[in-house]
Amino acid sequence: QVQLVESGGGLVQAGGSLRLSCAASGRTFSRYDMGWYRQAPGKEREFVAAISWTDSSTVYAHSVKGRFTISRDNAKNTVYLQMNSLKPEDAAIYYCHADPVDYWGRGTLVTVSS
Question: What is the mean pLDDT of each successive set of 10 residues along the chain, which is 114 residues long?
């Protein structure tokens, strides 16, 4: 069983930055592809970014490309999401996800004021 715990959310002004963390339990974290998703009120959960376990290659949603950076530290069992130039439309609950085991964290709330 893998547990994922997100942290780092909060209130930030538009144009500001936040760094989200997702700490994972379990000894096989380094073999999971990890991703971040988000869900805004009244909207469906959407993909934000992902990082592979093989070569740490990354992929981003078009809406965040160039502003967000996903990274991982396998020694710390942690994946990060650095979010810069935040916009009000980035406000959501951000969830961490592990693939292929399909585990989800409980999320961390990001609020962006205009």
Answer: 93 98 86 95 97 94 98 94 98 96 95 96
